[in-house]
Design a protein that fits this description.
99 residues; single chain
């Protein structure tokens, strides 16, 4: 979809000017996203989707932690409350008895 957006936007020639370091990040991002989805689909095939999904969404909490630690972004109250609520929700769903 990204390449389609580039082509439709008429910016294909600008792709040639992307620095090598940016290509490394772009390719790494693509590979890690693909691996993550393969693992997600494998987890769904092994367990209940209603339990796997919320645990997978904890990636948002890890993203918040990583940007605070590595990118030094400021952690605001609403973001902290949201992250705690997501964590609690995932735990509640994960430990709930199966029906």
């Amino acid at each position: 979809m990204t390449w389609l957006a580039v082509a439709v936007g008429g910016r294909v020639t600008q792709v040639l000017h992307i620095p090598k370091s940016a290509w490394i990040v772009l390719v790494g991002s693509g590979v890690s996203s693909t691996v993550a989805y393969v693992c997600y689909f494998k987890a769904i095939s092994l367990g209940d989707a209603s339990r796997v999904g919320p645990v997978d969404r904890l990636s948002l909490v890890f993203t918040i932690l990583f940007v605070v630690m590595f990118l030094r972004e400021k952690l605001t109250g609403p973001v902290m409350i949201g992250a705690v609520m997501m964590t609690i929700g995932a735990i509640v769903i994960a430990v709930a008895p199966a029906k």
